[in-house]
Amino acid sequence: MTTPADPSAPWPIRRAFPLIAVVVMILIGMAGTIWGPVYYGQHSWAVPDDLWATLVAAQRLLHLDLAGLYTAPTNLVSFPGAAVILVPVAAIMDAAGIPIHAGRQGAHPAGWLVAGPLETLIAAIALFAADALAQRMGVSLVKRFLLAAASATVLWNVTVRWGHPEDAVAIGLLLYAVLAVSNGKPSWAAWLAGAGVAVQPLALLAFPVLAATVEPRRLPGFLARAATPPVALLAAAAAANWTATIHAVTNQPNAPSMDHPTPWIYVSFLAPPMSGGSVAAGPARALAVVIACGCAAFTWRRWQAARLAGAWRPGDLTALLWWVAVALALRTVFEPVMVSYYVWPPLAVALVAASRDWIRLISATVTATVLTFLAQGSWRNPWVWWTPVVVVLGLTLMASRPARSPAAQMLPEPGEQFVADGTP
Questions:
Q1: How many Cβ atoms from other residues are within 10 Å of residue 217's Cβ?
Q2: Long-range residue pairs from 35-39, CB within 8 A, at least 24 positions apart, any chain
Q3: Distance between CA atoms of 271 and 284, rounded to whole angstroms?
Q4: For a tag on the chain, would you pick the N or C end, based on fewer CB atoms within 10 A?
């Protein structure tokens, strides 16, 4: 009988744990948004407001209205891939005659019954990628089950709570890129990482660490392939409406009056004021990318040694995942205005990095879960919300950090199988 531990098993069996996790997440998430408000004396469903504006952008893409991609009311500031991944959802809603509009959806929006499960299913790529990496590292079935449960719990923040499946898709593609690197397939890794950036530019934070694993002579081709998906999509949108596209993508406006301002809001060159009380988040995000490049330079020798050694050892792959999580955490540290779901990307990757060791996995699960719900707090003071969030994020990274050990100890634990080919 085949099991999820068998790399030759059919895909539904190999990925049984994330499949179960996403089904449970959809059921609990939909029940929580529909019947959950009753316990708080509320009549309206608790649907994520952010999702609908992106669905408007997806509907415009479906109708080939590229010029309207970055115009009101889409509020799109990400790359066009954020709308591309929701085109199937918009198509199904169009076919069902369900109207799509931004803003408040009314007390009981029928669109949520379609959009909710579908956007959660799209975001589940992050769960499948995490499980594929865990299998590649020889993680036991019980730990993979816990990893799937923990990953689905924190993914709630991005999907059901806030309606931003693009973040999950970008990180899922990035994790598959890490898997491709560990299997000696840098070309595939470049395409996957580039696709992740095209969906959500936050993947750029981890890109320097990923690029540091590539053989120097192959780096130009790696960069060219990775640049193709985001550049092609952005060029198409800019050709249709240059002014709106460039303004949204370069300025990255964010509203401190609506979201969580951080102490960086007081540093004018990192958060330049914009009209309407917004600030430009672009400079701070550029600084985070520069620091991420520093992380890549610091770890470059290790990744080159791992590549020259042939098949990546589980310990090297764990370390690579941890540094990817560190790079993604830089957004939380330096962002001038935060939204609760911004904390999710480093948590998702840190859980995978911790999955080989029981103590680390359980510790990271606890801190990641605490941070997921802590981040939902409504505190407005720049220090009161940001400080505990950064502290707990740091604890999660500490909990998931792999121990330094000799190469001989970087083997799978007794009873665990190291899968060398790493099938997804």
A1: 7
A2: none
A3: 7
A4: N
